[in-house]
């Protein structure tokens, strides 16, 4: 058992929009469940759960549904953060093409005995970043110590929630470690102009 009675594993939080491709979600869960002890799917308040459930197959009790009570991605991510039961939480977008061992690598960075950190951000692209950039927050793949993130107030709502959350974390004095690998996405980033500042710290794209 971990702090505050939580299990010492990893909770994965996935915000699910009503228009997400069920096949993408099924593939993501199939990989994630091998490296975490809990998956929390956060559905929009008016989402039809019957549209998502058939895609989940027999993934068992480790997959839970939570409805967000407000609007927007930050609200969905915070609903998952509050619902998670483990010491560490990893946030994944439903369109992430997750590969084996990527969750384990993020957990290892969070639990590094020589240089532990509270937050780990994963850039996106076809290749790993050629060097470790300045810390930033990636809303598509981001790991955190749950208690620390809650103390800071979680995700910040704003024009670009990734950037606003990054500002909150860095101002608090915490370090954001950037993973030495990148994650692939199944589609172009939504609202590329508003994501400009986040994209600046993502490397290896084609």
CA-CA gap between termini: 43 Å
What is the tally of helical segments? 6
Main sheet makeup? 7 strands, mixed
Give the SSE order as H and E letters: EHEEHEEHEEHHEEH
Q: Which spans have pLDDT < 50 for at least 5 consecutive residues?
A: 1-7, 192-206
- Assign the CATH topology: Spore Coat Polysaccharide Biosynthesis Protein SpsA, Chain A
Bulk shape: globular
Helix/strand/pairing class, anyone?
A: alpha/beta
CATH level 1 name: Alpha Beta
> Which band does the percent of strand residues land in?
15-25%
Q: Tell me the domain tally.
A: 1
What is the share of helical residues?
Answer: 25-40%
CATH architecture grouping: Alpha-Beta Complex
Q: Radius of gyration, rounded? A: 16 Å
Q: What is the fourth-level CATH superfamily?
A: Spore Coat Polysaccharide Biosynthesis Protein SpsA, Chain A
Q: Can you give the mean pLDDT? A: 80
Sheet with the most strands: spatial strand order: 3-2-1-4-7-6-8
Strand count? 9
